[in-house]
């Protein structure tokens, strides 16, 4: 893929320079015009023979490359996958699956992947078309309502990456991204294991009590608590995430407070209602509690 | 024919001829000016309107650029941004790029082909008014915060979500459907005009290349626009009546829209590009001072591109998860289309090499456009390769690519054309100095604006984002792009100033100011007759090779130098060798076209707001206007059979069947209509492929009623054939009787066609299968209803003595309609009645 | 069918590209239906691939035939372009030459479209 790009850029630059060079030469005043026969020969060689051959080679190379870039995987045909990602306006529901393909645990807006191994994704859309894309790891795949698409990616370097939604999906399409944490296999397995274990109830605080009293649990789930809402993003260990509001805000207490108070001012068209009517103290307590979930 | 054989008229005779011609072709004054149907007026209005829409869309583009200049900007709201980029794309494609070429073609073609008029001037006028009304409707929506906001591609389910898209999506669908009607009207006009109305002697190997290109482009419109119209129908049915064509929960599929949209959308790119290259094919030989080198190669390129462009549509869908095999087929065709595109560039270079080039402003824009376009072409080759496109798709890399293609391949050549052809408007040249300043501002500004987008795209910036975070490597590229966009806009502004600045004091230039070899500069701004007399052509570049041609034309020494009957007349010639076969009388100034367009506009606008009664009222007015137009303006029995067209040639004034232009217009229209229908049938089978059981367990229309309808339609068709024969045999009473019988059978067929889905209580809102069956049935029945109107029209013409055994054009054309009607009916009822049994 | 006769030589211009279009359509539809209905069809991927290889050969054959007819119409290249004289003969030669060029382009385009048949071995997306 990388090679293909280099070949195309360098080849393209040379072809452009040659063509425009000839054009510039043709536009100048010359002592004697070229013969029609000579000019016709230019059409045949420059306009026909050369492109036919170059394009044929390029096409063959690229078509040969397709199954290399997106290799045939057993999971791709029968729909088994390791992670199911669903695009929703304007966030990502992420469901980790176990060996049997059953849901293991859910999270949102942040993927954890192992390095050096191919991970298969099942991609869905809940409302409109979105597109799943981690530029640093590979090409994109659309998420289309009614169709389950499969994609596999193989990260080669640990690190933190950003993935934007690549298909226009409504007012806040620009504010729909997710973070990707690529970790060593051992770390990844440990992270998975921690998530899969029977969750430990978080420490009880006034923030937690307010979270339930103000109805947050109707839409959000938090493992280890009675919160099992499925409408909005899962907030288990939200304090640990890189960003808030699907890649829109850095994960700080202040961002959390701003978002709870008036989500639409940050993310127009968001489905979450504003909670500006709550006392400031309540919002701060809820944010503090959520920020502490790790 | 040598000059000595040509007649010579005395000054008095010539003055008389000119006076009569002038009277016949005059443009009315006062408000009635707007009822003119002359190709020069229509072309000018069309072009000016398209240009104004372009400037408006350009302003929207600048708004978008300002918003993106810096990260986290709040210059405009997310929603306004989404409306702005949607309208920017929509207007540029539908209200500028396609119409501007229709404008140029309507303006230039008659004189270029050495003829007086295109065959259907009133149709051109109707097309223009439809375009103008629809365009204002679509553009105006943004001032009411009601513009479409789902992207110019209108992907469902976002665009079918009424809460999100509001009325904007309806405005897009209905407003543009209306404009598509205008485009198809233009396609009919251009195809018939180019094939049948060339000057005598202008064989197909001598046609100006502009005409070759436009012939191909008009043909492409005929196959590219109808699938979008079919898609629009499905889309509106979902939005208005909740028929679930694109709703996955009820068996629909958003991908069907993507297929239909891009089957239109990709040929569209070439529909825009080829006419611009056609202008270059006229400009380059003129300024190289020699005939084009590789005429046949250009024909190859135009025809080849026309075909290949229909095998590219899925390259807009490389990331949708279709099988790799499907993607690769489209990737291959996308690479192949680069070959004819390259050929054209080399033909221009070869012509320049073999000539002596005068580097004028039009050439500057042409060559600059080519330099830009080649970059767009090369990035096009890159994104047509699937592995690269998975990365680049829907990023700013594509934004850069498409602007390089469209601005280099279309806008620059169009500006070249404005500088080249401006003298036709009022005999004055545009300024060289302004032109050069404009060029450099546009050229530099364009590259500064769009080249950095390649990098922001490669760095992962998706398209259609109203903002982006700071610090992820996109900031500077966007800032530079915005600066470039303003420089570019200034360049366009200079062109506008040059065009509108008063030129009263400027001396008049020569009539053929660039010494072009083709005939378009023969048309004088003051004379509305197009050509003074219709010449005999013996060269590809008659103005160079036929020395006395222009003088003789002006002296009225060729065909049709006079208009003794006070009719607007032009010649019809054969397709290949352009031998004169008929003297055609074309429609003159009339308000009926405007009324028809306004009423049809009313239908579409009222539908947008669900004003059902107004819709019906407007539909009735439209029908009335069209019938009046036909009744008073077509198939008129002439005063004489053999009409003297000059040079001792006598030609019929009335022709029917394939000899007549009306027959061709019907044929071409029905090909477009058939394409839309084929798209609906494609939809039917598309649902079959994506579902295990595509009926979803819902009842079908049964076999009996569809078969009954099929038989009734076939019988009605047979009776129409009989009516045609009886009429030819001068058995008028029998003809009328058979027409009545056929009409009754058609009505019965329509009833039977709807009876199947109705009696089996198919509810189209429950699942996609009943919905698609209903749509196919309704499409067919609506065509049946149109057939009934036509049958009654023929009956009325016969009863009023306007249709006779000899003058039977109405009936022959209606029978042609019936050929398509019977194919539609048989296919529809066989598919909906029998296919569910087979599967 | 007088009108058909009049333009019959006009239509021959489009023969080769039409063959390309048919070949393209057959390839695309065959795999679209096969991949969507794999379960219901008793066909293997390679059978379809091979069949389409056969279609490709036929398509190329028809294009070569149309090229030969065009070559004949062009007078077997006895006369060079531009073919711009106002005679029936030059008009026919122009048609022959243009048709020949289109046959060449269509031949190449059919070859391009058959490349995926060589390299892609599964219905996977």
UniProtKB/TrEMBL annotation, chain B:
<feature type="transmembrane region" description="Helical">
    <location>
        <begin position="42"/>
        <end position="64"/>
    </location>
</feature>
<dbReference type="GO" id="GO:0009060">
    <property type="term" value="P:aerobic respiration"/>
</dbReference>
<keyword id="KW-0472">Membrane</keyword>
<feature type="transmembrane region" description="Helical">
    <location>
        <begin position="164"/>
        <end position="188"/>
    </location>
</feature>
<feature type="transmembrane region" description="Helical">
    <location>
        <begin position="476"/>
        <end position="500"/>
    </location>
</feature>
<feature type="transmembrane region" description="Helical">
    <location>
        <begin position="738"/>
        <end position="760"/>
    </location>
</feature>
<feature type="transmembrane region" description="Helical">
    <location>
        <begin position="269"/>
        <end position="287"/>
    </location>
</feature>
<feature type="transmembrane region" description="Helical">
    <location>
        <begin position="816"/>
        <end position="838"/>
    </location>
</feature>
<dbReference type="InterPro" id="IPR035973">
    <property type="entry name" value="Cyt_c_oxidase_su3-like_sf"/>
</dbReference>
<dbReference type="Pfam" id="PF00115">
    <property type="entry name" value="COX1"/>
</dbReference>
<keyword id="KW-0560">Oxidoreductase</keyword>
<dbReference type="GO" id="GO:0016491">
    <property type="term" value="F:oxidoreductase activity"/>
</dbReference>
<keyword id="KW-0812">Transmembrane</keyword>
<feature type="transmembrane region" description="Helical">
    <location>
        <begin position="707"/>
        <end position="726"/>
    </location>
</feature>
<feature type="domain" description="Cytochrome oxidase subunit I profile">
    <location>
        <begin position="19"/>
        <end position="550"/>
    </location>
</feature>
<dbReference type="InterPro" id="IPR023615">
    <property type="entry name" value="Cyt_c_Oxase_su1_BS"/>
</dbReference>
<dbReference type="GO" id="GO:0004129">
    <property type="term" value="F:cytochrome-c oxidase activity"/>
</dbReference>
<dbReference type="GO" id="GO:0020037">
    <property type="term" value="F:heme binding"/>
</dbReference>
<feature type="transmembrane region" description="Helical">
    <location>
        <begin position="327"/>
        <end position="351"/>
    </location>
</feature>
<keyword id="KW-1133">Transmembrane helix</keyword>
<feature type="transmembrane region" description="Helical">
    <location>
        <begin position="611"/>
        <end position="631"/>
    </location>
</feature>
<feature type="transmembrane region" description="Helical">
    <location>
        <begin position="398"/>
        <end position="422"/>
    </location>
</feature>
From TrEMBL, chain C:
<feature type="transmembrane region" description="Helical">
    <location>
        <begin position="97"/>
        <end position="120"/>
    </location>
</feature>
<feature type="transmembrane region" description="Helical">
    <location>
        <begin position="20"/>
        <end position="36"/>
    </location>
</feature>
<keyword id="KW-1133">Transmembrane helix</keyword>
<feature type="transmembrane region" description="Helical">
    <location>
        <begin position="48"/>
        <end position="71"/>
    </location>
</feature>
<protein>
    <submittedName>
        <fullName>Uncharacterized protein</fullName>
    </submittedName>
</protein>
<keyword id="KW-0812">Transmembrane</keyword>
<keyword id="KW-0472">Membrane</keyword>
């Amino acid at each position: 893929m990388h090679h293909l790009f280099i070949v195309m850029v360098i080849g393209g630059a040379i072809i452009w320079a040659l063509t425009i060079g000839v054009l510039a030469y043709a536009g100048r005043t010359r002592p004697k015009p070229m013969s029609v026969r000579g000019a016709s020969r230019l059409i045949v060689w420059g306009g026909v023979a050369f492109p036919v051959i170059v394009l044929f080679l390029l096409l063959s190379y690229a078509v040969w490359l397709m199954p290399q870039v997106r290799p045939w995987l057993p999971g791709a045909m029968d729909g088994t996958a390791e992670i199911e990602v669903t695009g929703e306006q304007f966030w990502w529901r992420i469901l980790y699956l176990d060996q049997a393909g059953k849901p293991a645990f859910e999270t949102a807006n942040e993927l954890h992947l192992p390095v050096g191994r191919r991970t298969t994704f099942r991609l869905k859309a809940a409302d409109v078309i979105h597109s799943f894309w981690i530029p640093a790891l590979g090409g994109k795949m659309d998420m289309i309502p009614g169709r389950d698409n499969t994609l596999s990616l193989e990260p080669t370097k640990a690190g933190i990456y950003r993935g934007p939604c690549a298909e226009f999906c409504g007012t806040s399409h620009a504010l729909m991204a997710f973070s990707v944490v690529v970790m060593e296999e051992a770390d990844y397995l440990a992270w998975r294991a921690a998530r899969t274990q029977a969750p430990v109830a978080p420490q009880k605080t006034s923030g937690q009590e307010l979270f339930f009293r103000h109805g947050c649990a109707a839409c959000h789930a938090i493992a280890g608590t009675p919160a099992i809402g499925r409408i909005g993003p899962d907030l288990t260990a939200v304090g640990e995430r890189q960003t808030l509001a699907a890649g829109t805000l850095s994960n700080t207490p202040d961002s959390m407070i701003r978002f709870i108070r008036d989500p639409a001012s940050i993310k127009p068209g968001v489905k979450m209602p504003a909670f500006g009517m709550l006392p400031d103290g309540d919002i701060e307590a809820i944010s503090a509690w959520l920020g502490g979930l790790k | 024919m040598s000059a000595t054989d040509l007649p010579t008229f005395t000054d008095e005779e010539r003055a008389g001829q000119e006076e009569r011609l002038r009277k016949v072709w005059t443009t009315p004054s006062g408000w009635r000016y707007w009822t003119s149907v002359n190709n020069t007026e229509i072309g000018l209005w069309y072009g000016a309107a398209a240009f104004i829409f372009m400037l408006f869309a350009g302003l929207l583009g600048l708004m978008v650029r300002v918003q993106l200049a810096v990260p986290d900007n709040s210059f405009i709201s997310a929603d306004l941004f989404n409306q702005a980029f949607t309208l920017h794309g929509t207007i540029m494609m539908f209200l500028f790029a396609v119409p501007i070429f229709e404008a140029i073609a309507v303006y230039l073609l008659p004189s270029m082909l050495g003829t007086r008029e295109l065959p259907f001037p009133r149709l051109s006028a109707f097309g223009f008014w439809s375009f103008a009304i629809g365009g204002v409707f679509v553009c105006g929506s943004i001032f009411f915060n009601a513009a479409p906001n789902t992207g110019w591609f209108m992907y469902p389910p976002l665009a079918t979500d009424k809460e999100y898209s509001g009325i904007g999506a309806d405005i897009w669908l209905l407003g543009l459907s209306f404009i598509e009607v205008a485009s198809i009207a233009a396609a009919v006009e251009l195809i018939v005009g180019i094939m049948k109305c060339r000057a005598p002697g202008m064989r197909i190997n001598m046609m100006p290349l502009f005409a070759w290109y436009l012939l191909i482009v008009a043909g492409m419109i005929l196959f590219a626009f109808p699938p979008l119209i079919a898609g629009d129908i499905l889309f509106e049915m979902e939005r208005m009546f909740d028929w679930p064509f694109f709703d996955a929960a009820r068996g629909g599929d958003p991908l069907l829209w993507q297929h239909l949209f891009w089957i239109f959308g990709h040929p569209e790119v070439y529909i825009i590009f080829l006419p611009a290259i056609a202008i270059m094919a006229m400009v380059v030989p003129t300024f190289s001072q020699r005939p084009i080198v590789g005429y046949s190669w250009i024909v190859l390129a135009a025809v080849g591109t026309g075909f290949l462009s229909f095998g590219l549509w899925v390259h807009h869908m490389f990331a949708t998860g279709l099988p790799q095999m499907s993607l690769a087929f489209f990737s291959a065709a996308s690479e192949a289309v680069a070959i004819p595109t390259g050929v054209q560039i080399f033909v221009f270079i070869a012509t320049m090499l073999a000539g002596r080039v005068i580097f004028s402003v039009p050439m500057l824009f042409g060559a600059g456009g080519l330099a830009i376009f080649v970059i767009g072409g090369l990035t096009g080759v890159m994104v047509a390769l699937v592995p690269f496109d998975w990365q680049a798709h829907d990023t700013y890399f594509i934004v850069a690519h498409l602007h390089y293609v469209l601005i280099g391949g279309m806008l620059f050549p169009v500006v070249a054309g404005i500088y080249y052809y401006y003298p036709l408007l009022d005999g004055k040249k545009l300024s060289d100095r302004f032109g050069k300043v404009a060029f450099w501002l546009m050229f530099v500004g364009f590259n500064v604006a769009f080249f950095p987008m390649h990098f922001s795209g490669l760095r992962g910036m998706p398209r259609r984002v109203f903002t982006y975070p700071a610090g992820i490597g996109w900031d500077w590229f966007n800032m530079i792009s915005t600066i470039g966009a303003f420089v570019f806009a200034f360049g366009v502004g200079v062109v506008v100033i040059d065009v509108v600045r008063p030129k009263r004091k400027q001396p008049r230039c020569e009539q053929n100011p660039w010494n072009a070899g083709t005939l378009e500069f023969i048309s004088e701004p003051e004379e509305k007759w197009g050509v003074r007399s219709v010449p005999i052509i013996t060269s590809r570049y008659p103005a160079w090779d036929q020395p006395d041609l222009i003088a003789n034309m002006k002296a009225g020494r060729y065909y049709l130098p006079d208009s003794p009957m006070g009719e607007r007349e032009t010649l019809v010639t054969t397709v290949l060798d352009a031998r004169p076969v008929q003297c055609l009388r074309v429609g003159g100034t009339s308000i009926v076209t405007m009324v028809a367009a306004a009423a049809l506009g009313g239908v579409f606008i009222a539908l947008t707001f669900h004003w059902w009664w107004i819709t019906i009222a407007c539909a009735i007015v439209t029908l009335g206007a069209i019938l009046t137009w036909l009744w008073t303006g077509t198939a008129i029995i002439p005063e004489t059979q053999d009409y003297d067209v000059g040079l001792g040639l006598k030609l019929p004034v009335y022709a029917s069947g394939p000899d007549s232009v009306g027959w061709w217009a019907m044929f071409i229209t029905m090909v477009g209509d058939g394409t839309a229908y084929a798209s609906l049938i494609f939809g039917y089978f598309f649902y079959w492929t994506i579902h295990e059981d595509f009926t979803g367990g819902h009842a079908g229309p049964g076999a009996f009623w569809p078969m009954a309808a099929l038989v009734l339609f076939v019988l009605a068709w047979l009776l129409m054939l009989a009516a045609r024969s009886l009429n030819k045999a001068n058995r008028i009473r029998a003809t009328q009787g058979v027409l009545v019988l056929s009409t009754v059978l058609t009505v019965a067929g329509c009833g039977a066609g709807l009876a199947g889905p109705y009696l089996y209580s198919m509810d189209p809102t429950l699942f996609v299968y009943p919905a698609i069956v209903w749509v196919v049935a309704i499409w067919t029945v609506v065509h049946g209803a149109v057939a009934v109107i036509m049958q009654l029209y023929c009956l009325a013409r016969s009863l009023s003595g306007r249709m006779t055994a000899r003058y039977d054009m109405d009936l022959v054309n209606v029978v042609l309609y019936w050929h398509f009607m019977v194919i539609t009916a048989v296919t529809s009822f066989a598919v909906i009645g029998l296919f569910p049994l087979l599967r | 069918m007088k009108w058909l006769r009049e333009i019959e030589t006009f239509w021959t211009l489009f023969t080769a590209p039409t063959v390309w279009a048919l070949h393209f359509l057959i390839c695309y539809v065959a795999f679209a239906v096969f991949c969507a209905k794999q379960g219901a069809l008793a066909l293997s991927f390679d059978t379809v691939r091979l069949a389409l290889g056969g279609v490709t050969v036929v398509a190329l054959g028809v294009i070569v035939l149309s090229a030969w007819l065009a070559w004949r119409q062009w007078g077997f290249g006895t006369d060079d372009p531009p073919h711009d004289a106002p005679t029936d003969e030059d008009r026919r030669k122009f048609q022959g030459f243009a048709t020949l060029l289109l046959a060449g382009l269509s031949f190449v385009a059919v070859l391009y479209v058959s490349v995926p048949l060589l390299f892609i071995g599964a219905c996977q997306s």
